[in-house]
Every structure is written in structure tokens, then in C-alpha cells.
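User: For my dataset I need records formatted as: sequence, then C-alpha cells, nothing else. Please produce one.
Assistant:
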Amino acid sequence: MLVAVIAALITIIVLVGIISVVISVRSHRASQDQSATNDIAELENIGVSKDASIANDAQGDVRVRSGERPSSKPSDSLSRRFAALGVLAGGIFALLGAKAWTMQVMSSDEYSDKALDNLMTSVSTPAPRGCIYDRNGIALVNNRTSQTVLADPDVISDPDVMRRLSAVLGIPLGVVRQRISDSSAGAQSKRVVASDVRLRDVAFISEHADSFEGVSVESRTVRDYPYGALASHLIGYTGSPSQQELDSTSSGRVIESTDVVGKSGVELQYDNILSGDQGQRQLVVDAQGNTVDVISETSPVKGFDLHLTIDAHAQYVADMTLAQLIAPSGDIGTGKGVAGAVVAMDMKDGGVLAMASYPTFDPTYFTNGIPQEIWDLYNTDESNAPMINRVVNGQYAAASTFKAFTSMAGLQYGFANYDTTWNCTGSWDGFGSGDIQKCWNTKGHGTLDLHGGIVNSCDVVFYEIAKAFFDHGPEGTGELSDTALQDYIKQYRFGSTTGIDLADESIGRIPTPEWKAEHWKNVPSEAIWVGGDYSNMIIGQGDVLITPLQLAVAYGGIATGKIVKPHLMKEVKNNTGDSVVESDVEVVSEPDVNQEHLKYVCDSLHDMVSQSKAASEAFYEAGIDPALVSGKSGTAEHADRIPDAWFVTFGPYEDPRYVVVCVIEQGDGGADNAAPVAAKVMSALLGTDGKDDEVGHISGSSGRSVELQYSSSGGRQD
């Protein structure tokens, strides 16, 4: 194309030059003729009388007197115009000749390729996605065959065929017309009229093929979920690509409008692995775009299979136990709490063994496009946000589960030791501000050391440690920075993402003086960091926010001394069953802590389970001796609603491997309501539940809720 443009420009320049030369020459000649005329002195009549009659009888020379010019002839002007027209015509023919030469000689290959492109086109065929399995090979997501009725684009011009399709498939004629006219998949692509068509309708169309010209039936694959909503948040769902996904090339994959793409969970995270390779049909088309012939066809290739670290049995226990606690009748509010989350992790390698969030959703609704009524239901306030994965995106006050980390900080800075004791009377005003802070046990715990403070979750013990940090900070002796406590806590990855292989993980919040000043910059009186900020933060209240996954990773650091990156992908297998990708253990960090302090805190967490009546009963009922595990409860208070219930446990005690975290929104006491859920999931992991690896169907949330049918105990219990 560039060569043709250059050649045309050269031709135009030459043409302009020729015209300029011709005009210049003619102007020169005209000036010479004028000069010659002016040089004539006189032409006289010789032998010719001035009388006209004489002139008729005699011949003689004509004489023109000096100063007179002969009149011009009309033919002189016409000759100049014909010459200019000839030059112009010659230039046009030269330009056309040059253009023809560049097209036929210089750019023949380019135009030949364009002609071939207009003659032939390629149409993609969707590939089956890879399946998703748990760590033991149990299929969590696979594919099923869907009978799909397709129509050629030119069926849109045959109203009789469209009416027959409408009658047989039970689809309104307007919908049939709209689907056949949809060219988003390509002008020559077959149009999907209906999916999951009944076999009797398929048979009717096949038997009356002459009446359904341009209509065909293909067996395509769609996602199938054998256990319903089991693990739906971590698995995610699929759907048609958005315009942004169609335009994006960042993944290195060309996405067609007929493809199915991951929208959330591991379906999104590992979309390139699961997606497979599209099939291709090479077609010959006429000038109107109608298919004339099929040149070649390649079959699509199924995507690779994804094997997760999830234990399907533990996942089933987590999903089922949450649902039974929160919505035993199917409606939220008929049990305890309004929402919740459970996560279990193998602390040895970071593999996530269970990840449950309630309310949940059934991904089956998304296979052929989610019905509008279901989408509307899931987006009401009454449904309580079933699409949110609360394990990675739910942010909660940590409550007393935080005390394992703040007690380590107190030991590290010498504000507590093995012999230090404090007296709890049920209330505390260590800063002398008149703003009295209460212990959850308003009657008081009496004299306690740090071990007793952890076992009994005594707030006053931790208020005293918080005061020591404040007194040694910038407002006191100045020995410590104003973020010494926060910096120690952040060693356990609070306030940071854990790095799990899921998109859009929340980071939570560990408040600092700088954060508070920015947050309250428009209310200066609230922007000052005070002692009460320490005493609130040290018991996991105030402005502290964490996710359940962060707490699981952090307690893994308490149990083993190492922070391991959590992950869901165990391995990827190709279509011959060979492993092509395997996950590696990634130790993110090893907190710089005193190992004797670590053992002291772990022993205190072990005794907490055994000495808590509610917690120990929960483990006994789950088939676990409380002496085999460690743990910590928490009850996060709110000014306007029932507290959130927390429980975290890890075990076996002698060689910790598993950690389980449970949070119940508005669940009240942690030991009472969160511990039973965590205990059952731990029992499934330890194999003490006697269920023989049971895995069953999980129903999606009904989307309905009622006012909670139980009341809070009226205050924190742990």
C-alpha cells in the first residue's frame, strides 16, 4: 500500500512538471510573436486603389502602416485550449496507468491476500473447560453434555423456519429472531437458539430436517456441579465474556464471544489453564457472506484439569455446619447469626483444606446465564450478600483472638513475664481519664498472671500491657516508637494480603497514629492518638479489622513459628493425566520472636480449650479430646448489633498441622456458637468424626431472612 501511494505521488509531480513546461513554452512563443509584430514598419498597397472597385480588378501588395496591429484570429484561442485539454487528459491517463501498475505489479500480493480473506473466513468452536477436583480426586466441577440447537445466519430471512423453531422449542418468536440475528459471535458463526434442549425436541428437528433448513443440533459441554453449592465461593462461576474481556489481550489468550470464561474464584484465577483450545472451521463464503463450503475443521481441545488442596469431606462439613447453624429452616435468622465463614489450612504446606462462606449461592444458575429473578434475589438486603466470599473479603474486629499476638508483644518488650500478676476487678481506668473500660467478666477475675489472662481472656490484663506501651511511647518516656505494638503484630501479616491465589483479597487494618490522623482529618478532636487506642487495639477491638484467612495464617505462625503462604492449587494435569504444574511450599517469613515466649503462649492456648466449659464440650461432641488441640475464642462487640463470634483452633497439640478459623456475624459468644463449627471441621480433618469421608449436596441460600429469633446474652462472654 505504501509503494502505491509513493508511485501515485511521483506521477502527480511529473504531471505537474509537464504542464508547467508546456505553459512556459507557449508563453515564450506568444511573446516572440508579439515582438515580431511590433517590428513591422509599414505594409503599402502596391497597385491597389483605395477605391474598392479598383481593388476588385487589380492585385497588389498590402501595406500596413507603422503603429497598427493585425487583428487576431479566433482559431488562435481554440488551439491553446485544445492543447491544455490534451495535456490534462494525458496526465489523467498517466495517473490511472501508474495506479494500475502499482496495484497489479507492485501490490499484487497484498490485494490477492485481501481477496482471499474476503473469500474465506474462520469460525471458532468453544472448547470444553478442564474439570476441578479436590485433593483426593473427587470431582467438584465437571462438564455435562448439553444439546444445543444452532441456526445459520440466513435463517433470519426464513420466517417459516423461525416459527417452527418457536413452536418446537417453546420459545417466543421474538426471542428466536433476536438470537438468530445476534452476530456478536461473527457474521458466519452459527447462532445459538437454545441450550439444554429436550431429546424429544432434538429428535423432532432431526426427523424433519427438510422443514428446518439451516438448523442443526450439536452436543456441547456446560459446567456441572455434582454437589450443588459446595465450595461455591472458592470455585467461583463462569459466564459469557464482557466487552472488556473480549478487548483484553493481557492474558495472552484470544477470547471469542462464544467462549465461556471464569468470573470469580479459581475459575477466574486459573481461567487460562481451564479454558482449552478453540476448534476452527475454515469456510468459503460468497459476496453476501453466506457459507458456500467448509474447507477444513479442527476439533476443540479440552482444557487442563485443576486439582485443588481442598478436602471435599471437610468442605462439606464446613458448608453444612454453617448452614445448619445460621439458617436451619432455610431462612437466615431462624438459627444463630446472620452470616459466617470457615477456613481450614494445612500449616505444613499452606494448602487450604476448606473455605466456606454463608449465605452461599448455587453456581448451577450461572451455566446458561443467571435468571434475572435469581440475580435480583441475590442483590437484596434480605439475602445478606451471598456472592461475597467472607473468608477473604469479610473484615471483622479480631476481638480476643488477637490476644495471642499482643501477649507475645508484651513478653517481647518486658511488659509481662512469667511471674507478673494483675488484679482484675471487672473494670479499669488505668489512664485516670474517667472513661472506665470493662472486662467481659464484669465481676472480675481476681489475681491473674499472663497465662491466666490468656486462658480466661481477661481484658484487664491486656489493658495493663497496653498502658505500658503507651507509657514508654512518645507520650511517655519515649523509649519506644508510637507503632512498636503495631510493628510487632504485623510480623504475622495482619494489615497485608496473605497472597492466596484468589483475586481481590482484602487487607484488613491495623490502626496507627498516622492512619487515625488521616482518617479523622476533618474532625481534629478525634484525630489525636490516645491511650485508649492502645487499650482497644490490644484486645482486638476499636479500629482493628482482619479477615478469617489472615487469622488462620497468623495462628499458623503461632503454632509452627513460620508464616506459610496459603494456596488452593495443588497441581494441574493435562489431558493424558500427567502432572504439568505442582504447587510448592512458600514460607513467607519467620517472625523474630523468642521461642520460649512462643511455647508459653501455645501452652496457654492449649489450656484455654480444656478449661473453657463451652469450648471443651464442643470438642467432646465433635469426637475430639480437648487435650489434643489448642485454641482461642473471641466476641467482637458492636454498638448497634449483636456481637460477632470467633473461634480459632489448631492441632494436634504435640505436632500442629491443621488450623481452623470460624466467625459468625452476630453470633454472640465465640465459645458458645463458633467453637462447635470449628470443632466439627477439625474432627473431619483429624478423621475422628466417623463419617467415612462423606460428601453431599449443598443447597444455595434461599435469599430470605427474618429477624433473629434469639437475643444476645447482653455482653461479651470471652
